[in-house]
Amino acid sequence: MSDNQNTPGQDVAARDTAAHPERFEDPGVPAHRSRLTDVDPQAAKRNERLIALIFGISCVGAIASVVVYFAVRPDGTTAGTRLSTALLGVTMAISLLGIGIAAIHWAKSLMSDHEHVDERHTLASSPEVRQVAVQHLADGVEDSGIARRGVLKGAAVSALALFPLTFAVPLISSVGGDWNVSKFRHTLWERNKRLAYDPTGRPIRAADLTVGSAAHVIPEASQEEMQSHEWITEKAKAVVLLVRLNPEDLRSDQSPEGETWSYDGIVAYSKICTHVGCPVALYEQQTHHLLCPCHQSTFDMADGAKVVFGPANRPLPQLPITVDDEGYLVAQDDFAEPIGPSYWERLK
Fold first, then answer.
1. Phi and psi of 336, rounded to 5°?
2. 26-59 tens-digit pLDDT
3. What are 290's strand-pairing partners?
4. H or E element that contains 219
5. What is the DSSP letter of 28?
6. Which of 73, 91, 272, 329 has the smallest C-beta neighbourhood within 10 Å, fewest atoms?
7. What DSSP designation does 302 have?
8. What is the pTM of this model?
9. Under DSSP, is residue 20 helix (H, G, I), strand (E, B) or coil?
10. How confident is the model at residue 122, as a pLDDT?
11. Helix (H, G, I), strand (E, B), or coil: what is residue 314?
């Protein structure tokens, strides 16, 4: 083999160097392509009027949101609450989307789109460099034409000034409202209140449940009560998940005072996650774990619904249950502690 003959490895290295050079030539900034609004004053004027119109629509949306808040109040029914919420959402969306769409269209059609390249330098710029930077900003403002477009400035300021009213008015008007957090300490559950299937309201017998089965439970109520807005509101605090385990699998089913809170392996726990209040309803039969779908907090139903994983830091409150003379499952009392996430006034 001659001295000047390359080895296979050297040939590969040479090809890699040719295909992937260490340095590339700077292609520079491509030539600027003028937009129609840059060369046609009439087109620029049309876009200015369009942007002002969109800002105007945003203002109308903000004003409509305030009007809806006072004119379409929830009337105590589910349909009334949905209507009020939907109208508020739509009007607030119009207000905020109007600002966003108008700002984007303004930037794309009227503001300067020239590309500028600044060489990288140390953070502590010299006074001369800072003076040049300030001059560039001033040139950009002049090039964008903001100073001579009074209509757009007025429309933008009006839209930005009115939009905060969409959430400021409801916040201010709620001052002095119902801040009684002690109501979270009590639910519809009381002594001898029967457990019923959700949503039918049919009472549950202990014999109806087989080992491994789970049921979504609400307090028993008449059909008339179940249609009222007040009952629906209170029901949201009283929802329970009922699970029947093998009694031998239960590691904890007693109150701190030693009372038994389960019946023949049947346990009942609040469905409201102690993290942020999501509905906990994903039950895994083999592990007896209950999963919150929002943030994956996991509770052990066989061990007092204690937290085994996730951000929740408290077990689910347990509903003490037993059976009545007819074999129906009933509550021994309300939850022993407040349901749901923690709050400032909570004692435990």
1. -80, -10
2. 777 788 888 888 889 899 899 999 999 999 999 9
3. 283, 299
4. strand 214-219
5. -
6. 73
7. T
8. 0.55
9. coil
10. 65
11. coil
